[in-house]
Amino acid sequence: MADDLLKARVDAYVDEVWDSVVSDIDTLVQIESVEDLEHASDDAPFGPAPRAALDAALRIAERLGLDAVNCNGYLGYGQIDGQDDKQIATIAHADIVPLGTGWDFDPLRVTRKDGYLIGRGVADDKGPLVLSLYAAGFVRREVLRTGIAPKHTLRALVGTNEETSMGDVEWYLQNYREPDFLFTPDAEFPLICGEKGRVQGAFRSQEIAGEKSGNVLVSLDGGTVANAVCSLVEAVVYANLADLPAAQHIELEDAGNGKVRIVAHGKGGHASMPEGTLNAIGILVDYLLAHKLYSPSQLSYLELLQKIMASTDGSSIGIDATDSFFEPLTCIGGTLRTNNGCFVQTIDVRYPTSTDVDKMSAVLEPLAVQHNASFEVQGNMTPFLTDPESPEIQTLVSTYNEYTGKNGRAFTIGGGTYARHFGKAAAFGPFEHGATLPKWVGPEHGPNEGVHEEEFKQALKIYIVAIMRLMELNLD
Known about the structure:
The chain folds into 2 domains: 2-196 and 384-470, Zn peptidases (Aminopeptidase); 197-380, Alpha-Beta Plaits (2-Layer Sandwich). The protein is 30% helix and 26% strand. It contains 9 helices and 24 strands. The protein has a 6-stranded mixed beta sheet. Strand 1 (67-71) and strand 2 form a beta hairpin.
């Protein structure tokens, strides 16, 4: 009965505040809070616009009755003190990716249309940020209603640097104690309890590129970022255009002075989800090898690239791995550049707990040497996993299932969220895993970024009830 009364109060609260929720999302959306390090300062370490968004979010927190604290401009929080020294936290972010092109609506205002909210950041992550603040606002109302503080402290963290380096949480964890449990509303329901590790590295050839005498292959250039499957890459070679045959996904053009530009077109995608992609580098390398468009010194490196692109699970280069918690390792080729007379191929590996960077390096370094190249690790993040059977995770998942009538279970991903920076954490909604949007509504990071308003309302209810239940747990 007590649970039913709680849910009734939550329903009434969400109905009462919902227009204010949408208005506050609009307030944040109006701030073009893209990282701007060129204009950063001591109190705005990621630029003036992320700082402005932080200030606006903390004003919302203060209006909702939370104790609002600005942490040197890196991030901030709204807090309700608890009876003990344990801390439950949420974390969402007020920074955004650039607006981009292709919008049919004003990206810097919330547009309400046919049951959807449209605007840059409504999904990622200003909308969920406002939900987290209003969830804390309900807890504050309960304190005022009953006169009893919650069992644990509740802290709603506001980040400002999630879209780039996550330097905000790194700074926070160096200066503040870690929450006993945290969730971020910046992902999908039912719940993400683990994220693969991530290695980024590069295979560098010997000095075999450029206009040196005897070089057939002059340059290779493709890809935009290391963590995306390459969709476009080109080579410049010394060859006779008339001698080169047409091929699928290949474009040929005269580059002058006896050279030909060969452009390969693939199908890009995120490094953590390579299924269904087509790496343009593999297409190009296969073409170069098939038509002997290389000098003898360049052959071995091209054969190395061919091995890298031959699989997306790392099996072709001997680093494939899996375990009971995660889907198999993924490995993709991201960027390919000509640099100081060398070719440099980056890879992005998302790996489970059954392997690690040392094991992979022990395979990749000698592989590179076999092909007259070198391999260097450029970055590594270890896998993150919170026990899916822990009381905190089960509390969140069961609350979601009650509201949706589903039988959802915690799952793991290859991507990364704020959660991976904390010892005991999860990514919890607010979007349905695998849900589709109308054609006129865009995804996060895309034009016409949008969310379903009723699903958002339900997410707020789920967050409130889940937090109230977390408050009753005995935290380790």
